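[scheduler] slot 2 assigned
[scheduler] job type: sequence-to-structure, two independent chains
[scheduler] chain ordering preserved from manifest
[runner] begin chain α
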Amino acid sequence: MREGLKTMMLKPYPAYKDSGVEWLGKLPEVWGVKQLKRIARLNPSKTEVPCALRTGHATFLPMERVGDDGTFDASEIRPVKDLWNGFTYFRKGDVIVAKITPSFENGKGASLETLPTTLGFGSTEFHVLRPSKLILPKYLYLLTVHSEFRRLGADHMTGAAGQQRVPADFIANFPVPLPPLSEQYAIVKFLDWADRRIKLIIAARKKRIRLLEEYRQTLINDAVTGKFDVRTGKPYPAYKDSGVEWLGKVPEGWGVKKLRQVTELVVSNVDKKSSSDEVPVRLCNYADVYNNYVITEELTFMQATASKEEIRKYAIKRGDVAITKDSEIWNDIGVPAYVDYEAPDLIYGYHLVILRPSVGTLDGKYLFRTLQSQAVATQLHIEATGVTRFGLSQQAIKSVRIPLPLLPEQRAIAEYLDRETKKIDAAIEKTQKSIELWEELRTTLISNVVTGKLDVREVAEKLPEREPELEAKIEAIEASLRGGEVEAAKSVAEEEAEAVEETA
């Protein structure tokens, strides 16, 4: 069937009635309205599990293994005895819904019809819904991703900020539309068909972003290590061994220097605590550096206080390069940001190292680009120490070696990379917006269909139950993204996804 989402003409039902529920409005005439507790059991007790099953195995689903698109990773199987205490119990065919913020608002949850084991256990931050014979598990799941269910649930959350949860009473008493089972089948079939197409398009776009990010990284690395001359686009006439494994060969006229030779290193120890002799300041923190390539005046900085000595020592200066010096994630160490702003009240916060380039020797923007390169970032990662939290010592940072052309060439490389990466970043941003639009379409389509705004019965009759080839393409792209396998050009599956979108 070649008909796509955009060309498919879906119409309203022939007759409607008032649902009596404000957010639902009118419903198809033959539909009913039920509280969720009337059509599903909420959080069933594990005491119901027969003794024979308690000695077997169960699927384990921590929160990170459940997606916000109904998918879940059921690859982890453990003995039931290891999961019996301290986890939420569910069974094959149940529906799980995240109850804690922001997972609830993001739509984390799933219909567990394909659970590979009879029993399952998972995060204590899940509510479990066991559908009755009146409702299909997948249709019940679709109701839990409806935008109004999420919005109203968020409004009813209780608990401390950052740890708020949706109470069980809200879910139990939530009124939902209930069509006849035959129409539930049609709704599930249609939305599964539509979801496959949307997932293929989104997966292809995520892969495009990964390809662009890889290209960006390669371009930076090749430019700062002299694999080509940015002024001509060709290799340099002659090369020499840099003496550094990760740098390889560099152009013959270039030098290689340790950071201690070409920068002043400053480690900030300013924290958020205040004392009476301190004055108000703004802090450029870890998150400001980690989340931004460039520190500018447009950013919103944390309010804090500091002593006059701290202000003198840690004041931000235009042309600095700040890097993250510790993190719970190994790859998050040494992430740089170029500083293009300074103000009397703005200083560096904790968890940062500031590299101040030597005037006349090293250009700040070029230093920023070298720290972005794989050749230099790898040196920082190798020097990181720690078990649950990784960090860089001052000595390790000072010992990192960078390629060093003459100052005019440094500036030419920085200007070239500014220009070229801006194009790549624009392409990434455009692709990300496209993903967001398709995700919004998915949400809107689900909402309109499960509340009877659109009648899919006739269309669903013509749709296939399964599409193995399309499902295989989706899995192939998603698997390559999970595994970090990125090709240098568009895959066949990605090109076919482009074709799907043309008719979607």
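[runner] end chain α
[runner] begin chain β
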Amino acid sequence: MSFSQKNTPLLTQLSKLAFKQEAPFYAPGHKKGRGINSHFKALLGENVFKADLPELPELDNLFNPEGVIKEAQDLASHAFGAEHTWFLANGSTSGIIASILATCSEGDKIILPRNVHQSAIFGLILSGAEPIFINPEYDRDFDLFYNLSTTQIIKALDNNSRVKAVLLVSPTYHGICANVREIAYCLHNYNIPLIVDEAHGGHFHFHSDLPMSALEAEADVVIQSTHKVLGAMTQASMLHLQGSLVSSEKISRALQMVQSSSPNYLLLASLDSARQQMATEGESLLRNTLDLALIAREKLSKLDYLSVLNFEQKKDNFNNLDLTRLTINVSKLGLTGYEADEILNTKLNVTCELPSLKTLTFIISIGNNLDDINKLIEGLTKLEKYRKKVNQNDIFITNFPTPKLKITPRQAFYAETITLRQSQAINHISGETICPYPPGIPVIMAGELITQDAIASLQNIINHGGTITGASDSSLQTLKVVNS
């Protein structure tokens, strides 16, 4: 069946029903906004609540689509270059978990980078799969990871049996891309599917000056956070599938387990809308975005007290860089990224996506304009007057801890735990997964040995203004460990 990419079947039907004159006796309880708190209605307006509708017959069913959702998903699969596409109303987290559930069962093994998002750890807990973690190369200057290399993956395959899938994070939060095509080709020779967490790369397919998309590189399952870089609402994502190595039926069944049975149609319609926008205007929108990013990069590269993450030549573990993802090292100013973020946000009206100990990362997208870029350049230029005279070695970490996994995350999740003081917890198996957030990459994972380096890394983040999640005691004075 062929559809026009200009059509927005789900959005159109939702709009029609939102303004239908009727006596509604269905959920949600606010009945098209009539029962909404007046202060909330004043903030958002009436129309958003009129369109907050349930699974009415005209709106199709996300878990058995035969009407407008099916049409919208088919349009998305054509636009993004997939064979099948599922809309996700529970974010990319649900897509990553479902992908692991669809490929791995208890006792199976999956290869993945140690800097994987915590959602993959949830997938390991639910599936019972045994992780084979590979440590990507760590860049001390920028305090970030590169990507997995083909050589690392082949070595892991040769040393392990029962590997049922490989999960790759490409691009990383900082825009660093792996050689997905080479890795996919290698894995297909083993008859093993490649799952790509492409949460930050949903725009790649729509402009040739961006890195190759994971689907074009022949990955089997690709999860994209359409809301992160395109025009969907927060929490709205997509899962794409191609090839025969992963069952579409298993993907569908797994998604029913991890998504709400009452999905938000505003989110689903925003995916339909974002797809239509990119299919019809994507190239021009992204040309403008790239031009804005290049202006920022050129201007900021001239400031000798800042360093801009750039891509100079292809490496096995750093195959390309998304130029719309701007990472700035501020450590020459004697500031942490957290301090710089606070200054920019409160004094200079510039807000970044991801502060860390050494860097600030900014997402430049189709929603930005030249005024935003000028404010960014002005803000980072004015940052120099906040320079501090400190010994950088007293502030910034010099290596990333890589604790050893002793039991699987699933075993740790179900294990009995006890609480110990921080000093006593060293060399015990962690009963909790603790992440700086964002980006949501665990420093301590349930099932790993707690090390002094890991504690020091987390404590350093807390001391300099960062936020951690997953710890029962956010001060880290005590930790939960497996009672062995």
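[runner] end chain β
[qc] chain β: The chain has a mean pLDDT of 94.
[scheduler] slot 2 released
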